[in-house]
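input
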Amino acid sequence: MNTSIFTQKLLRQRGFLASLISLLALFVGLGASLTAEAQSYNSDNITISASPSGGIATSTKYDGSRDKAPYNPLFNGAILGNGSLFDQATGSLTITAASANLSTSSSKPFTESLLLYRVYLSGTTPPANLSKITFDLLSADNNSNDVTFGVSNVAIDLLHHPAVLGGGTYVVEIFYQSTYTKNIANVDEPYQIIDPGAVNIGYRATFKVLTPLVTPSGGTSMWISTGVIAGQPVASGWGRQW
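output
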Protein backbone atom coordinates (compact mmCIF):
# COMPACT_ATOMS: atom_id res chain seq x y z
CA MET A 1 0.00 0.00 0.00
CA ASN A 2 2.72 2.50 0.96
CA THR A 3 4.78 1.58 -2.09
CA SER A 4 1.83 2.23 -4.40
CA ILE A 5 1.12 5.62 -2.85
CA PHE A 6 4.78 6.62 -3.09
CA THR A 7 4.91 5.61 -6.77
CA GLN A 8 1.81 7.64 -7.59
CA LYS A 9 3.25 10.72 -5.85
CA LEU A 10 6.53 10.34 -7.70
CA LEU A 11 4.77 10.11 -11.06
CA ARG A 12 2.70 13.19 -10.30
CA GLN A 13 5.86 15.10 -9.29
CA ARG A 14 7.61 14.05 -12.49
CA GLY A 15 4.63 15.26 -14.51
CA PHE A 16 4.63 18.58 -12.67
CA LEU A 17 8.38 19.06 -13.17
CA ALA A 18 8.06 18.28 -16.87
CA SER A 19 5.33 20.91 -17.19
CA LEU A 20 7.39 23.42 -15.22
CA ILE A 21 10.42 22.89 -17.44
CA SER A 22 8.25 23.40 -20.53
CA LEU A 23 6.86 26.64 -19.13
CA LEU A 24 10.33 27.90 -18.26
CA ALA A 25 11.52 27.12 -21.77
CA LEU A 26 8.55 29.06 -23.16
CA PHE A 27 9.27 32.08 -20.96
CA VAL A 28 12.94 32.05 -21.91
CA GLY A 29 11.99 31.91 -25.59
CA LEU A 30 9.54 34.76 -25.20
CA GLY A 31 12.10 36.79 -23.27
CA ALA A 32 14.66 36.35 -26.03
CA SER A 33 12.07 37.37 -28.62
CA LEU A 34 11.05 40.46 -26.66
CA THR A 35 14.66 41.47 -26.15
CA ALA A 36 15.35 41.22 -29.86
CA GLU A 37 12.37 43.45 -30.69
CA ALA A 38 12.74 45.92 -27.80
CA GLN A 39 12.82 49.58 -28.77
CA SER A 40 15.00 51.60 -26.41
CA TYR A 41 17.31 54.59 -26.09
CA ASN A 42 21.05 53.89 -26.10
CA SER A 43 22.20 57.49 -25.69
CA ASP A 44 21.14 61.07 -26.39
CA ASN A 45 22.63 64.54 -26.15
CA ILE A 46 22.01 68.26 -26.58
CA THR A 47 24.35 71.13 -27.49
CA ILE A 48 23.94 74.51 -25.79
CA SER A 49 25.58 77.75 -26.87
CA ALA A 50 25.94 80.21 -23.96
CA SER A 51 27.07 83.85 -23.83
CA PRO A 52 26.55 85.13 -20.26
CA SER A 53 27.28 88.65 -19.04
CA GLY A 54 30.99 89.09 -18.36
CA GLY A 55 31.60 85.40 -19.07
CA ILE A 56 33.23 83.44 -21.86
CA ALA A 57 31.05 82.32 -24.76
CA THR A 58 30.89 78.51 -24.87
CA SER A 59 29.31 75.71 -26.88
CA THR A 60 28.88 72.56 -24.81
CA LYS A 61 27.51 69.14 -25.71
CA TYR A 62 25.68 67.57 -22.76
CA ASP A 63 24.62 63.94 -22.36
CA GLY A 64 21.11 62.94 -21.38
CA SER A 65 21.56 59.18 -21.18
CA ARG A 66 24.81 57.54 -22.25
CA ASP A 67 26.01 54.00 -22.80
CA LYS A 68 29.70 54.20 -23.65
CA ALA A 69 32.70 56.54 -23.65
CA PRO A 70 33.66 59.18 -24.55
CA TYR A 71 31.29 60.90 -22.15
CA ASN A 72 30.14 64.51 -22.19
CA PRO A 73 29.00 66.49 -19.12
CA LEU A 74 25.54 65.48 -17.93
CA PHE A 75 22.72 67.88 -18.77
CA ASN A 76 20.79 66.87 -15.67
CA GLY A 77 22.02 69.13 -12.86
CA ALA A 78 24.12 71.35 -15.14
CA ILE A 79 24.35 75.10 -14.50
CA LEU A 80 24.37 76.70 -17.95
CA GLY A 81 26.86 79.52 -18.40
CA ASN A 82 28.94 78.06 -15.54
CA GLY A 83 26.93 80.06 -13.02
CA SER A 84 27.39 83.47 -14.70
CA LEU A 85 24.37 85.75 -15.03
CA PHE A 86 22.67 86.18 -18.40
CA ASP A 87 21.63 89.68 -19.46
CA GLN A 88 18.61 89.51 -21.75
CA ALA A 89 19.77 92.71 -23.48
CA THR A 90 23.25 91.49 -24.44
CA GLY A 91 23.54 87.75 -23.70
CA SER A 92 22.37 84.63 -25.49
CA LEU A 93 21.48 81.05 -24.58
CA THR A 94 20.43 78.72 -27.38
CA ILE A 95 19.96 75.07 -28.26
CA THR A 96 22.06 74.52 -31.39
CA ALA A 97 21.94 70.72 -31.86
CA ALA A 98 20.60 67.48 -30.40
CA SER A 99 20.55 63.79 -31.28
CA ALA A 100 19.46 60.38 -30.05
CA ASN A 101 20.70 56.85 -30.74
CA LEU A 102 18.19 54.03 -30.33
CA SER A 103 17.85 50.29 -30.75
CA THR A 104 15.21 49.13 -33.21
CA SER A 105 14.33 46.23 -35.50
CA SER A 106 13.26 45.77 -39.10
CA SER A 107 9.71 44.88 -38.02
CA LYS A 108 9.29 48.00 -35.87
CA PRO A 109 11.07 51.03 -37.37
CA PHE A 110 10.61 54.40 -35.72
CA THR A 111 8.17 56.78 -37.38
CA GLU A 112 9.14 59.93 -35.45
CA SER A 113 11.80 61.15 -33.01
CA LEU A 114 11.61 64.41 -31.02
CA LEU A 115 13.26 66.59 -28.42
CA LEU A 116 10.64 68.05 -26.07
CA TYR A 117 11.52 70.98 -23.81
CA ARG A 118 10.05 73.55 -21.44
CA VAL A 119 11.40 76.55 -19.53
CA TYR A 120 10.07 77.82 -16.20
CA LEU A 121 11.06 79.78 -13.10
CA SER A 122 12.76 77.59 -10.51
CA GLY A 123 10.46 76.73 -7.61
CA THR A 124 7.28 77.02 -9.67
CA THR A 125 5.10 74.27 -11.11
CA PRO A 126 6.36 73.10 -14.52
CA PRO A 127 3.94 73.96 -17.35
CA ALA A 128 1.98 71.08 -18.85
CA ASN A 129 2.74 72.05 -22.44
CA LEU A 130 6.11 71.33 -24.03
CA SER A 131 7.71 72.72 -27.16
CA LYS A 132 9.18 70.25 -29.65
CA ILE A 133 12.07 69.91 -32.07
CA THR A 134 11.55 67.25 -34.73
CA PHE A 135 14.63 65.14 -35.47
CA ASP A 136 15.84 64.05 -38.90
CA LEU A 137 16.93 60.49 -39.62
CA LEU A 138 20.75 60.56 -39.63
CA SER A 139 21.38 56.85 -40.12
CA ALA A 140 21.59 55.12 -43.49
CA ASP A 141 18.42 53.22 -42.64
CA ASN A 142 15.82 52.79 -39.91
CA ASN A 143 15.68 49.02 -39.62
CA SER A 144 19.04 48.09 -38.13
CA ASN A 145 19.97 47.42 -34.53
CA ASP A 146 21.06 51.04 -33.92
CA VAL A 147 19.47 54.08 -35.52
CA THR A 148 20.35 57.76 -35.02
CA PHE A 149 18.08 60.80 -35.24
CA GLY A 150 19.02 64.43 -34.68
CA VAL A 151 19.25 68.05 -35.79
CA SER A 152 22.10 70.52 -36.15
CA ASN A 153 22.43 74.21 -36.92
CA VAL A 154 19.23 75.13 -35.08
CA ALA A 155 18.90 78.19 -32.84
CA ILE A 156 16.26 77.75 -30.13
CA ASP A 157 16.35 80.89 -27.99
CA LEU A 158 16.04 79.98 -24.29
CA LEU A 159 17.00 83.37 -22.85
CA HIS A 160 14.00 85.07 -24.49
CA HIS A 161 11.59 82.21 -24.00
CA PRO A 162 8.09 83.53 -23.09
CA ALA A 163 8.50 82.13 -19.57
CA VAL A 164 11.60 84.28 -18.88
CA LEU A 165 10.02 87.51 -17.69
CA GLY A 166 12.71 88.88 -15.39
CA GLY A 167 15.63 88.14 -13.13
CA GLY A 168 15.91 84.83 -11.32
CA THR A 169 16.91 81.20 -11.73
CA TYR A 170 15.18 79.28 -14.53
CA VAL A 171 14.93 75.60 -15.37
CA VAL A 172 15.36 74.06 -18.82
CA GLU A 173 13.78 70.60 -18.79
CA ILE A 174 14.13 68.21 -21.75
CA PHE A 175 12.69 64.86 -22.81
CA TYR A 176 13.51 62.61 -25.77
CA GLN A 177 10.52 60.90 -27.38
CA SER A 178 10.36 58.42 -30.26
CA THR A 179 7.37 56.70 -31.84
CA TYR A 180 6.98 53.32 -33.50
CA THR A 181 4.03 51.13 -34.43
CA LYS A 182 3.06 48.48 -31.89
CA ASN A 183 0.44 45.77 -32.25
CA ILE A 184 -1.96 46.07 -29.32
CA ALA A 185 -4.90 43.63 -29.22
CA ASN A 186 -4.34 42.87 -32.91
CA VAL A 187 -4.46 46.56 -33.82
CA ASP A 188 -1.40 48.54 -34.99
CA GLU A 189 -1.15 51.71 -32.91
CA PRO A 190 1.53 54.40 -32.43
CA TYR A 191 3.55 53.77 -29.29
CA GLN A 192 6.01 56.19 -27.65
CA ILE A 193 9.15 55.57 -25.66
CA ILE A 194 10.55 58.45 -23.61
CA ASP A 195 13.93 59.19 -22.07
CA PRO A 196 14.12 59.68 -19.16
CA GLY A 197 11.43 57.17 -18.27
CA ALA A 198 10.23 58.87 -15.06
CA VAL A 199 6.70 60.24 -15.39
CA ASN A 200 6.76 64.00 -16.06
CA ILE A 201 10.36 64.38 -14.85
CA GLY A 202 12.95 65.17 -17.50
CA TYR A 203 16.62 66.08 -17.55
CA ARG A 204 16.89 69.47 -15.85
CA ALA A 205 19.52 72.21 -16.09
CA THR A 206 19.35 75.76 -14.74
CA PHE A 207 20.48 79.25 -15.77
CA LYS A 208 20.45 82.60 -13.99
CA VAL A 209 19.07 85.81 -15.48
CA LEU A 210 20.11 89.31 -14.43
CA THR A 211 17.25 91.55 -13.29
CA PRO A 212 16.69 94.07 -16.12
CA LEU A 213 16.63 97.80 -15.45
CA VAL A 214 13.37 98.11 -17.37
CA THR A 215 10.39 95.87 -16.65
CA PRO A 216 9.95 93.57 -19.66
CA SER A 217 6.62 93.26 -21.43
CA GLY A 218 4.39 90.94 -19.42
CA GLY A 219 6.53 91.28 -16.29
CA THR A 220 5.85 93.04 -12.99
CA SER A 221 8.00 95.02 -10.56
CA MET A 222 7.71 95.50 -6.81
CA TRP A 223 9.72 98.22 -5.12
CA ILE A 224 10.92 97.74 -1.56
CA SER A 225 12.76 100.06 0.81
CA THR A 226 16.42 99.30 1.49
CA GLY A 227 16.64 101.74 4.38
CA VAL A 228 14.71 104.11 6.65
CA ILE A 229 14.33 107.54 5.06
CA ALA A 230 12.72 110.47 6.75
CA GLY A 231 9.99 112.13 4.79
CA GLN A 232 9.33 111.23 1.19
CA PRO A 233 11.15 108.24 -0.30
CA VAL A 234 13.86 108.93 -2.86
CA ALA A 235 15.21 106.63 -5.57
CA SER A 236 18.47 105.95 -3.70
CA GLY A 237 16.59 104.36 -0.87
CA TRP A 238 14.65 101.87 -2.91
CA GLY A 239 15.49 98.67 -4.71
CA ARG A 240 13.76 96.49 -7.24
CA GLN A 241 12.61 93.00 -6.36
CA TRP A 242 11.20 90.45 -8.79
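quick obs: The chain is about 15% helix and 45% strand.
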